[in-house]
Amino acid sequence: MLVRIAGFEHMQPLLDVAAQVGPLFGVPELERTRDFREFLERKIGQGEALVALDRRSGRTLGFLCFSRRHNRISFLAVDGGCRRRGVGSRLLGCALSLLDAGRPCGVTTFCQGHPGGEPARALYRAFGFRELGPLEHLGLPRAYMERPAGAGPGTGLPQRGPLAERCNQDPAYCPACRRAEPGERVAELAEAYLDCPAGGPFGRCILTAKEHQGPFYAMEREAYRRFMEDAARAARALQRAAGAVSVKLELGADGLAHPRACLTPLFVDDAAVTREAAGRAADDQEAEAERLWLLQRLREALEEERRRETAPV
Ligand SMILES: [Zn+2]
């Protein structure tokens, strides 16, 4: 399965999927309504539509539209023949990673008991959404669900594609520039912020440059030096705090206007744990408790780094 940002060439396949779910939504011939077609065109134009494709056949399995401005999921539909293949989960996970986890994320979906609506509700619950109450949408009874701020791995930073380009051109639109105080930031370092998002392998941290400037290979020499010093500082602290054998550092050359580095602690039993198993473990309560424990230790280790650097020799 391949998840991509939808282009106008996907318009008809998306309408075909929408045609299938219209009756379920209580809007027969949804795909023919002018409002929906305009909505879809707008979303594709803004780079706010994701499509899941069968990688080999190119068949459209489902799609999702979201709103960066309102930080919400606007539409989700999966082809009737492709249910239970994890299509919705892939699309929603991807959308959440593109939205701002520092703000609540909302969605309007089916009410409890809506025929055929439970899979969607279960999907949202699995991603941390909670029902806040009933509402009426386009004259139909619906439920409003919300995922609280700080509930997941989304950094709000699009990695590539039209979204990244738009953010790069316009700092006013750039979630990294606009970013409010997220509750879980580990630390503010000299040149970058350090985060340890939930949902990934244990201890994986993201270092994001504060300045809106371009990819790391286009950074000014001084900024680059300070950024790499932050990376080294964070790696030392992470290794100590997590009890890791070493730390892998990956620099993002993805065209983002905020240079980023990913720090992953490596452990002696890593080879015995598959990536998939590690991802699953990250969902459970113990993994979350361990992550919060690490956050605290990591802050202390960074403080220790700072003391060492400023200590007179
Ligand atoms: Zn920015």
Topology of this structure?
Elements: E1 2-5, H1 11-25, H2 34-46, E2 49-53, E3 60-67, E4 72-78, H3 87-98, E5 105-109, H4 118-126, E6 130-137, E7 140-147, H5 162-169, H6 175-178, E8 185-188, E9 192-195, E10 205-209, H7 221-242, E11 246-252, E12 260-266, H8 275-281, H9 285-310
Parallel strand pairs: 4-5
Antiparallel strand pairs: 1-2, 2-3, 3-4, 5-7, 6-7, 8-9, 9-10, 10-12, 11-12
Helix pairs in contact: 7-9
The protein binds zinc ion.
The site of zinc ion (ZN) has 7 residues, from helix 6.
Describe the structure.
It is built from 9 helices and 12 strands. The strands form 2 sheets. The protein has a 7-stranded mixed β-sheet. Strands 8-9-10-12-11 form a 5-stranded antiparallel β-sheet, with helices on one face. The relative contact order is 0.09. With 313 residues, it is of the alpha+beta class. It has 2 domains: 2-147, Gcn5-related N-acetyltransferase (GNAT) (Aminopeptidase, 3-Layer(aba) Sandwich), CATH 3.40.630.30; 183-310, HIT-like (HIT family, subunit A). The termini are far apart. β11 and β12 form a beta hairpin. The radius of gyration is 21 Å and the shape is elongated. The longest helix has 26 residues, at 285-310. The model is unreliable at 154-158 (pLDDT under 50). The structure holds zinc ion. Zinc ion binds next to α6. The site of zinc ion has 7 residues, from α6.
